[in-house]
Design goal:
CATH class of the largest domain: Alpha Beta
Radius of gyration: 19 Å
CATH architecture of the largest domain: 2-Layer Sandwich
Strand content: 15-25%
Number of helices: 10
Shape: globular
Helix content: 25-40%
Length: 280
Amino acid sequence: MKAAAFDYHRPGSLAEALELLRAGEGAAKAMSGGQSLGPMLNLRLTRPATVVDISGLAELRRVHGSASGIDVGAAVTHAEIEDGTHAPLRGHPVQQAAAGIAYRAVRNRGTVGGSLAHADPAADWMIVMTALGAELSLVSSRGTRRIPIDGFMQGAYTTVIDADELIQTVHLPPLPPDARWGYYKFCRKPGEFAETSAAVLLAPSARTARVVLGALDGAPRLLPGLAAHIAGHGSADAETIAAAVRQALPDSDAIDRKRHAAGLRRALAQAALLAEGAAA
């Protein structure tokens, strides 16, 4: 099956792209890397009247680092992050995460903003950005608004982005020098959808932590109780992890809970936060 007919535009500026989306009155769709939208078009799961290709917009391909954090343009590709093309992201947790996304061919084209806008519950960037406490800048011809990542995804493939809006930048807050990071996902083979994913960020000096479960039915799930335990004790054992998963996913079956608990243990082990004697 091939895509239904649509008008294709490749604007030369962000302002032009936003005007095309506004004029589309809900029937225009933005395309960045096209790694998710392309298959959906071919399967006719989406039938926009207009596709606006934003992949080449310079305004969306910049990365800027400062004392207040790092702003990552929405059209920056996974491969650029993996390869350390942008100096502010070298050695950052996102570099490790980018290297594990699907296949290199996908990483060459896929973009940070495109992945977040698609809002696949099993995707890497949604859980990673949630663990990092990112903030998104959404832009339209009406203006700009900033949305915390925790309130961005409303459900599977559903976000707060309006039809005439784009993700312009992803803001990563600064990491303390003593930050500990772990991210683990389980796929049956490379490139498949994750069946479980977990991420943890601990700032020992600030005694704060964020612990997140992904690959669920909807948005990633923060585990504040487990995060507080890790921030206070510096680690967590298998029993504490299992209890946190039971509390977060009360309606899941035992097999699902065991899988997610195993993912959490391995993420914590990466960050050296798994208590001694607790098998990863």
